[in-house]
Known about the structure:
The protein is mainly alpha-helical. It is about 70% helix and about 5% strand. It has a two-stranded antiparallel sheet with strand order 1-2.
Amino acid sequence: MSNQEAHFFDVQLTCLSIREFVEVSGLDASEINLLVELGIFMPSGTADGDWLFDHTALILARRMRRIREDFDLTLDTNALALGFQLLSRIHSLEQELSSERASRVNSG
Length: 108
């Protein structure tokens, strides 16, 4: 296992504080706070001082940062969050459709 794979594995098993999340996600604290308010990130804990973020939030944060940088987008955090909400909904609908098609094939 490479060092990068080992590090990723460790991150999957570890929850990150807001300070650590800011360091590794590439988003700043104000963006993270807004994304929590919008329901994009759902950390454990009751206040931003004791929030803990899991690996799925980290993956999403890095994906958001990468899309913004790769396409040189100047979208604000709200627009980026809306785009991800829509993509998430499309993905879940595609999964439902796929499951429905599979059940029809298996029953028919």
